[in-house]
Structure formats: structure tokens, C-alpha cells
């Protein structure tokens, strides 16, 4: 009998599969894959090599992936951070690199040199990773410099391996008013489960990408026990309690990351969809 594996977290097709799955599934060929890094600020990951397909998730600059196939301008990859599998244009990949810092600001600019008066050449989201090779200071502003001479504000960066703190709810609140984007996972556009994942990632906690995966994490609690940091799940949606009364969530109602009274949110969402399906404490 063939094992059924979640295609979001396991790289397998009838013709090709991850070497680590050999013996669990049938495939014509198994490969170990090769390492690569994301080479642009935000890369959309899709279930099929088709630009008309919806976005499953996004990968950020400097995040590492394993590449199982390059064909017809597309790469089939698995993200090292959360194991998500999908397709992206091959030219969005760069050589593997040992990153040194993570962007800690919701958004920041990359300048062609350590000079904030020069036109920025790119913008990076919180969670992006860079390799700094030096430091510079201009008129009292400190920068981290990269191999090509470009620079980012040093205060917007955190050394790899360090956490932004312990309060992931405070991190999530920094995204208030960020536009809602289905499949989005950056400070430029984000969805409900990515808000939870990215906020936890910045305090040093690995967490699954999608809400159905997240709903199995932590400990089940009752609605009456809700407090700051608890997660509330609906079918296909997740929010983060800021306190006993207020919910933080990226949602399609305001089309932003918003702060909403929890009881009002339950009533509003329930009228169109359903009541919450679960409550979890991390």
C-alpha cells in the first residue's frame, strides 16, 4: 500500500522524490537535492510550475532551500526553515551562502553603499537573511555592508541565532496595518498563519506554516482560559490573543493585520463561516 504524504511537506512525485523518502513511497528516481538561497526579496512558492496558480507561501531573501529539480525555467524546492515544498522560477535562486544576520524590522531598505541619502536598491522584510562582511558608519548611522558593497541599517538586523525577545505577541503587533495577502509571508503582505509563524520565528521558535498544521501544536485549552499568546482557530483561519479580550490577526475582512475584539470577531466570522474550531496554548 502506498503511503500518503502531505505534498506541502514532502517532495514526491511519481517520477522524482526526495532521497529521504526512499522506502516509504514509490518513485522512478530519488535525489538528495542541492542547496541554494533565495536571491530576491520575496519569492512566491506554488504547488505547480505555473504563474497562474495561486501562491501557497513565500520565501524570503537569504532563506535556504534544497533544490530537487531545475526544468523549463522552474525549480522544485523544499524550504529548510519549515519544510514547505513547491515551485518557483529558477532565476529566483542564488548560490548557497552562510548568512550572518536576520532583518528584525518589519521592513528595511538596502542601499548601494552605506549612505541613506542614496536611492535604495531593494527592500527586505523581517525574517530576511543577509551575509554581512563588514560595518560602516556615516554621519552617526551604523550600517552592515555586504560583499557587493550594498548596506543595510545595522539597527534593523539581528545576528543569526539571536532572538528578538520572548514576546511573540509584541512582534505580531508590529505588523498592524500590514496588507493581508493570501499566501503572503512578509512585511509587504501577510496572511493569518504566516503572521503567527513569522512572529514565533523571530523569538527563536520554529513553527509550521499553515493553520491546519499549527492547530496541532501546543496544548488544547478552553475558550474561558484564553490569555495573551494563545491561538484561536477557525476552519482555515488563525488569530493570536493579545489579551483576554483582543485578537490580533491578518484577515480578509479589513484586508490588513488588525486588532479586533475577540467576541465581536467570533460573531462576525460565525455569521459567514463557523464558530472557532479550537484554542491552543504554546
Structural class: mainly beta
Number of strands: 25
The spatial strand order of the largest sheet comes to 20-25-21-22-23-24
- Euclidean distance between termini CA atoms: 36 Å
Average of pLDDT? 97
Based on Cα principal axes, name the global outline.
Answer: globular
Strand proportion, as a percent range, falls in 35-45%
Could you state the CATH homologous superfamily of the largest domain?
endopeptidase domain like (from Nostoc punctiforme)
Low-confidence stretches: none
Share of helical residues = 10-25%
CATH fold category name of the largest domain: endopeptidase fold (from Nostoc punctiforme)
Give, in order, the helices and strands.
EEEEEEEEEEEEEEEEEHEEHHEEEEEHE
Structure description:
- The protein is mainly beta.
- Helices cover 11% and strands 36% of the residues.
- The chain is built from four helices and 25 strands.
- It has helices spanning 168-173, 192-201, 211-214, 262-272, and strands at 17-18, 30-31, 34-38, 42-46, 55-60, 64-71, 74-79, 85-89, 93-94, 101-103, 107-110, 122-125, 129-130, 134-138, 141-145, 151-153, 157-159, 185-186, 189-190, 219-220, 231-234, 237-241, 246-251, 256-261, 278-281.
- The strands form eight sheets. Strands 20-25-21-22-23-24 form a six-stranded antiparallel β-sheet. A five-stranded antiparallel β-sheet has the order 8-7-6-3-9, with no helix packed on it.
- The chain is globular.
Amino acid at each position: 500500500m502506498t503511503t500518503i504524504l502531505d505534498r506541502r511537506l514532502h517532495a514526491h512525485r511519481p517520477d522524482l522524490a526526495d532521497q529521504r523518502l526512499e522506502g516509504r513511497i514509490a518513485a522512478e528516481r530519488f535525489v538528495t537535492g542541492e542547496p541554494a538561497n533565495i536571491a530576491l526579496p520575496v519569492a512566491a512558492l506554488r504547488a505547480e510550475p505555473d504563474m497562474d496558480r495561486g501562491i501557497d507561501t513565500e520565501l524570503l531573501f537569504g532563506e535556504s532551500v534544497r533544490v530537487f529539480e531545475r526544468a523549463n525555467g522552474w525549480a522544485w524546492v523544499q524550504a529548510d526553515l519549515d519544510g514547505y515544498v513547491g515551485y518557483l522560477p529558477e532565476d529566483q535562486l542564488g548560490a548557497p551562502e552562510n548568512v550572518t544576520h536576520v532583518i528584525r524590522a518589519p521592513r528595511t531598505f538596502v542601499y548601494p553603499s552605506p549612505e541613506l541619502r542614496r536611492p535604495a536598491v531593494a527592500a527586505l522584510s523581517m525574517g530576511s537573511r543577509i551575509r554581512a562582511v563588514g560595518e560602516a558608519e556615516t554621519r552617526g548611522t551604523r550600517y552592515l555592508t555586504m560583499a557587493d558593497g550594498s548596506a543595510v541599517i545595522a539597527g534593523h538586523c539581528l545576528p543569526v541565532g539571536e532572538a528578538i525577545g520572548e514576546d511573540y505577541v509584541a512582534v505580531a503587533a508590529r505588523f498592524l496595518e500590514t496588507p493581508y495577502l493570501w499566501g503572503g509571508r512578509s512585511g509587504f503582505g501577510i496572511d493569518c498563519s504566516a503572521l503567527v509563524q513569522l512572529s514565533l520565528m523571530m523569538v527563536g521558535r520554529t513553527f509550521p506554516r499553515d493553520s491546519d498544521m499549527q492547530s496541532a501544536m501546543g496544548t488544547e485549552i478552553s475558550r474561558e482560559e484564553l490569555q495573551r499568546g494563545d491561538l484561536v482557530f477557525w476552519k482555515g483561519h488563525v488569530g493570536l490573543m493579545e489579551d483576554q479580550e483582543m485578537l490580533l490577526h491578518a484577515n480578509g475582512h479589513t484586508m490588513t493585520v488588525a486588532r479586533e475584539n475577540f467576541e465581536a470577531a467570533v460573531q462576525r466570522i460565525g455569521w459567514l463561516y463557523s464558530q472557532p474550531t479550537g484554542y491552543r496554548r504554546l
